[in-house]
Design brief:
By secondary structure, the protein is α+β, with helices and mostly antiparallel strands. The protein has 11 helices and 13 strands. A hairpin with a 6-residue loop joins strand 6 and strand 7. Helix 3 packs antiparallel against helix 4 and helix 8 packs across helix 10. The relative contact order is 0.14.
Length: 405
């Protein structure tokens, strides 16, 4: 969330940033929050003046009573009571204004980095590097769920009966493969010096609203009925929440963490080229990477960012790294550092995102006051083709671990 002082001093910068993200419907929010901010400051000033005046005249009551001026003392008491009533009215309005201001401020997107390409969709991403080439075989490629069913590895029908659409049973060797990939990702990151963590799979509402907007929360999160708890949509949520209301000593930075969790998402209004099968689902698992560091330590991202490259290389699939365009930049994101996409045999003409790296600086102070409000988070979302693509890697330094072959 942007600092209201920044919005107050740079309204046109904030509006242009909204235009760059093609979210023109939010432009009116800038003027609205400025009006709310003005009203809020005026209320605070009036309340402060009323309290000072009330304290001043309250001291007169005792003196007047001591002088036998009971009627004058009663008049002063009425003034004190009237001031108290007005203060209560203003305080109630102040609470309403601050709640509305916070709600609107959380919808205004963070300022994107100047290096972010301005564009509306993935076609305007800027390709940074490519590893291998997509392979288009000379035979019809079965759909990924067909292949899994042929191995008795997935049961969609039973899942529909048990939980509805968007769920599946993984069976046998396919289930073992799924677990093996997650385990490999975990050990891969541990071996790179990251601290492994299994976080809570539910978080409170103040953590939810600390990491996403109300609209995003409604579209993604499942709420536990009768409890102030939400199922996480990604362990990123609870990993950020780990540091809520804490000040991290500078000497403890950077903190490099990798976390495992199941993830639960409504996928309301989910957009994607592939929604049939196991792409748009309500429950899945993933391994996350989170780095907390000082702004001047941001170069650590370069080393961290190489982890998804080396990890994905182990599966012998062609992939590319791109600089995502501005519309695809999250509301809390200042800079999408890169996005990795894979094209395998099962979808030879479509690039599918398998990992995303981004920086979110000012937003972090929303829930975690710390000496250096800086967060770099790189989730690993790997979709492994059913059949590996034979490729030659562009960089000799990228090697395939023998344990992954």
């Amino acid at each position: 969330m942007l600092d209201i002082k920044f919005v107050r001093e740079n309204p046109e910068v904030v509006k242009q940033n909204i235009r760059n993200k093609f979210q023109d419907s939010k432009l009116e929010l800038v003027d609205k929050v400025l009006e709310l901010d003005k009203e809020n400051r005026e209320i605070k000033q009036e309340v402060e003046a009323l309290r000072a005046e009330r304290n001043k005249i309250s001291k007169q009551i005792g003196a007047l009573m001591g002088q036998g001026k009971r009627e004058e003392a009663e008049e002063v008491k009425k003034q004190v009571a009237a001031s108290g009533t007005r203060i209560e009215e203003l305080s109630q309005r102040e609470k309403e204004v601050e709640e509305e201001l916070l709600k609107d401020m959380m919808v205004i997107p963070n300022i994107i980095d100047p290096s972010v390409p301005i564009g509306k969709d993935d076609s305007q991403n800027v390709e940074i590097e490519k590893f291998g080439e997509p392979v288009v075989p000379d035979f019809e490629v079965p759909y990924h769920t067909d292949i899994m069913e042929n191995f008795d590895g997935i049961d969609l029908d039973s899942a529909r009966r048990v939980a509805g659409n968007g769920f599946y049973y993984l069976m046998g060797d396919i289930a073992r493969l799924h677990s093996a990939v997650i385990s490999y990702a975990r050990d891969f990151m541990i071996n790179r010096g990251f601290t492994y963590c299994v976080p809570p799979f539910m978080i409170r509402s103040n953590v939810v609203t600390g990491v996403m907007s109300f609209a995003e929360m409604d579209a993604m999160m499942y709420k536990i009925e009768g409890e102030d708890l939400y199922l996480i949509g990604t362990s990123e949520h609870s990993m950020i929440g780990k540091f809520i209301d804490q000040i991290i000593p500078e000497e403890e930075l950077p903190k490099t963490l990798t976390s495992y969790s199941p993830c639960f998402r409504k996928e309301k209004g989910a957009h994607g080229l592939e929604e049939r099968g196991v792409y748009r689902i309500h429950q899945f698992e993933k391994q996350e990477m989170i780095v907390f560091c000082r702004p001047e330590e941001s170069p650590i991202v370069i080393a961290t960012e190489d982890a998804p490259v080396r990890f994905t290389s182990a599966f012998l699939i062609g992939f590319r790294i791109t600089k995502p365009e501005s519309q695809n930049t999250g509301i809390d994101t200042t800079q999408p550092i890169s996005s990795m996409a894979s094209s395998g045999w099962f979808l030879p003409t479509i690039w599918i995102t398998i990992s995303a790296s981004f920086s979110a600086a000012p937003v972090f102070s929303r829930i975690v006051p710390m000496s250096a409000p800086r967060m770099i988070t790189i989730p690993i979302l790997v979709n492994v083709p059913e059949k590996p693509c034979p490729i030659t890697f562009a960089r000799p330094s990228v090697t395939v671990p023998s344990s992954a072959v």
